[in-house]
Structure formats: C-alpha cells, structure tokens
Amino acid sequence: LEFRRVLFRFREVGVMLKKDERVSARVIAGWFVNAADRDSGEAPTHLKIQKLVYYTQAWYLANFDTPLFDEDMQAWTHGPVAPSVYKKYRGAGFDVLPQEGKAGVPDIAIDFLKKIHEECGQYTAKKLEKMTHEEDPWKITRGELALEARCVRPIDKLLIRNYYAKRLGKKEISKLPN
Questions:
Q1: Distance (Å, rounded) from C-alpha 135 to C-alpha 104?
Q2: How far apart are the first and last CA of the chain?
Q3: Distance CA 30, CA 154 (A)
Q4: CB of 83 within 8 A of CB of 71?
Q5: Which are the contacts of 109, defined by CB distance < 8 A and separation ≥ 6?
Q6: Which residues of 139-172 are buried (b: 16+ CB within 10 A; e: fewer)?
Q7: What does the alpha-carbon distance between residue 85 and residue 168 come to, in Å, rounded to a whole number?
Q8: What is the pTM of this model?
Q9: Which residue in 2, 13, 44, 157 has the most C-beta neighbors within 10 A?
Q10: CA 19 from chain center: how many Å?
C-alpha cells in the first residue's frame, strides 16, 4: 500500500492529541465498527477491526512519534491484536459486528481515523491480515514461530514507529519521547 500521500495530510490537519492524552483501543475499535459503509457491502468483522486498530496505532506512531493508545498490540496468528478489543468482540467470531453507540473519540482524532478508514477500510479482513503478515513489526515479533503457534508477545511500539516512519521518509529513532 502507498500511504505516504495520505499520511502527510494527517500532519497538515493537526490531529495530534495533547501531550499524554490517549484514546483506548476499544474506543477506536467502536469508531471503526460504526464507520463501516454497510450499504456498500463493507463488513466490519472482529478480524478487520483489529487490523484497522493496528494500522491506526502504526500510522499515528509514524506521524507523531507517540502512541495513540497505551495498550500493546500482540503478534497473534491472524496478525496484530489488541487484547482489550479481542475481549470486547471475541464472541462474534467471523460475523459482522453490529452498530454500537457513540464511540467517544475526541473530535481532534476523527479526521485521522477517517483517513485510516478511507485508506485501509476498502480492504477485506483477510487482505489486511495478509498485509500485516508481510510487514516487519509482526514478522520480527513472532520470529521463527509457526503460523499456527500461539503468541502473545507485544509488538514493540518503537519497532512499529520506525518501520512505518521509514515509509514516510523519516529517520529511525532510538527511543519514543515521553
């Protein structure tokens, strides 16, 4: 995927939250469930929502050098997973998730989420899974584990930041700012 053009627009709209302000992965997941264009056939499944949450964190880290949410994503068999989001939707299996109440995302972050949804929401859950499997943060975190092996290793936020920031032409950093 070529996110570069779109992601530079994120910086222009000034979506960075205040220092130390965070949004939970569960709230972000709820926003994506509600944002799905069901009339056009978009199916917000648990698997798809997990990948959208991951790409939201990844591109936020790449653009702003700080996480949008504190929770670590884990390198599960089907790609990165936020455990709190798993707990929220685990009963849904591969079914389409129902609309939810208002997600509670700060207004300043809505444009960022809309751009992630515009760029990534067009893909199926399996396509997004395949994309994460081809990218270093998930591959490095899993190491030599077999695909079907259980893994709850956290994907390091600095690894995520540096991988995606490189795609934006940014330099690697050795530590995320506090």
A1: 30
A2: 30
A3: 22
A4: yes
A5: 15, 17, 23, 68
A6: eebbeeeeeeeebeeebebebbbbbbbebeeeee
A7: 28
A8: 0.90
A9: 44
A10: 20
Tens digit of pLDDT per residue, the chain (178 long)?
445 444 544 554 455 666 666 789 999 999 999 999 888 888 899 999 999 999 999 999 998 899 999 999 999 999 999 999 999 999 998 888 999 888 788 887 888 899 999 999 989 999 999 999 999 999 999 999 999 999 999 999 999 999 999 998 899 999 998 7
CA distance readout (Å), 162 to 63, 67, 88, 169: 10, 12, 29, 10
